[in-house]
Amino acid sequence: MMKKIDLDKKPAGVGYFINSIQTLFVGILRVWTIPIVLMLSLASGFTTYYGLSHFITPWIALVITVAIQSIVVICSLEMAGMHWKANRIRYFSVVCSLLIALMASVSFSYFKFYEISQKDKLHTDRVNQLRIDIKAYIDSALVLKADILKQQNTDIEKASTEVSQAYFGTHPQAFDTYKNHVGEGPFWKHYNQIYLEKKAQKEKFEHDFADLNQDIQKVQSSVNNLDNAKNLEDAYQQMLSNFDALQLKMNLLFGNSGLSAVPQAPLLMTFNQFTADVQPNIAMWSDFSLFAFVCAAMVDFFTVLLSYRLEFTAPGPLTVQEEELIFECLRQFTEFKINKNDELEMVIEKTDIERARRYCDWSRMFAVGLLLNRGFLRKIDDRTVEFAPNLYPLIAEKMSDKIHHARQKAQAESEIQHVESGHTL
Known about the structure:
- This protein is mainly alpha-helical.
- It has 3 domains: 14-118 and 286-312, no CATH class; 123-274; 320-424, Arc Repressor Mutant, subunit A (Orthogonal Bundle).
- It is built from 13 helices and 4 strands.
- The chain has helices at 14-52, 58-80, 88-117, 119-168, 186-224, 232-256, 271-274, 283-286, 290-312, 320-330, 352-356, 362-374, 392-424; strands at residues 336-338, 344-347, 377-379, 384-387.
- Helix 1 (14-52) packs across helix 9.
- The protein starts with 13 loop residues before the first helix and ends with a helix.
């Protein structure tokens, strides 16, 4: 009895398994592109809204932000689906719309990234400003101290000279009865008392300023603690308290020295001013931050790129019917060679004989276009393409199927002939 042979049964092979895994992985990546685009668009929309809301009403900023992000995604998809030679006006209108939306998105997103990137720098700048103001105040006090000490040294030298003149009776203001009289008389006692008072005044001033140096060190130390303080508010209040104590002592010290002008203390910022966030303003562009601009542009760049690739790249693998169609159409090409990349290369143009016979190659060109869109072929130039690695196992499995079917058919025909010859006998 003749065995029934199933010629339509498709054998499972390693090539089909590898191809199915690869196409499944690529398909998952393409599907995963959609939520990535949405998340990037939301991230860009948040930063755009943040910057825009500081200049206009929040609900209007929200509407404009939604419009900007929609234009970015829609125009990116449209660009991937059309060619500029087909309709130049439409193409350039889409490009202009995309550029305007990107400029608006990047410009207002820049403010948020500027605030994030400049937060530490802003804290450092404010601490440095405190150091500069306090240092200028202390330096002005040191200048006055030097002037006072210089004047006191001059007064002491003058008083010392007068004491010596009074002792030897050569002082110009001495009475005639005391002139040229050596000794410690009443006239000498008067000038000696003046000398001792000035000397004591200088020693007291130096002692008071030595105590003041400790307060200066406390203020400088409390300013330095602002860089690594666990509780910034307590550290800042301690710094203000130390500075107020320093200012009070300086006013008393220089006020008692007889000076009409005392060092002008700077007006330090409050804690709220010290910790205030950066408010978006046009001045941020004058103090341009390349890092903030690159971060703002990078988010929109990835949104455009993935949106473009989402439309530009086909979403799925080949079906069984498409595999059969493509295999049969590719067999119609005749010019093949191995190129420098060790890939199989074929010419997709008509041959001279086909042109002479006016051969219609629509079906095989459709197959080439389908494979190019699915990533199974790679275009080299206008007339040649090369096989992508994921096409080899597919074609190999098809060829194996054809050989398998041919062998089964030959075996079936041999058995039929054998049976027929037996009946004849």
